[in-house]
Amino acid sequence: MKEFFRKMIISAVVSSCVLFGFLAVCKAYSGIRKIGFGEYRSAIEIKDGEIKIFDHTI
């Protein structure tokens, strides 16, 4: 049981680092677009049946 909780805590720490890292990149991208190009654009947008993640359209 002790090993289970240890692995769960390690997984939670790694997952939170990846999540907060992604959120930080999204925030930086929004700031770069605003300052560098003068447009207010979110890192992830869903409009008109298109999903835009950073500069890629799905």
Detailed description of the structure:
This protein has 58 residues and is α+β, with helices and mostly antiparallel strands. The protein is built from 1 helix and 3 strands; from the N terminus they run H-E-E-E. The chain has one helix at 2-37, and strands at 44-47, 50-53, 56-57. A hairpin with a 2-residue loop joins strand 1 (44-47) and strand 2.
Structural class designation? alpha+beta
Q: Record the strand order, biggest sheet.
A: 1-2-3
Q: How helix-rich are the residues, as a percent range? A: 55-70%
SSE sequence, one letter per element? HEEE
Measured by DSSP, the beta-strand proportion falls in 15-25%
Write down the overall mean pLDDT. Answer: 94
Unreliable runs: none
Number of helices: 1
The geometry reads as elongated
Q: How many strands, what sense, and barrel or not for the largest sheet?
A: 3 strands, antiparallel
Count of distinct strands? 3
**Radius of gyration in whole Å, from Cα?**
17 Å
Element layout with pairings:
Layout: H1 2-37, E1 44-47, E2 50-53, E3 56-57
Antiparallel strand pairs: 1-2, 2-3
In short:
The chain is an alpha+beta fold and 58 residues long. It contains 1 helix and 3 strands.
Summary keywords:
single chain, 58 residues, three-stranded antiparallel sheet, alpha+beta
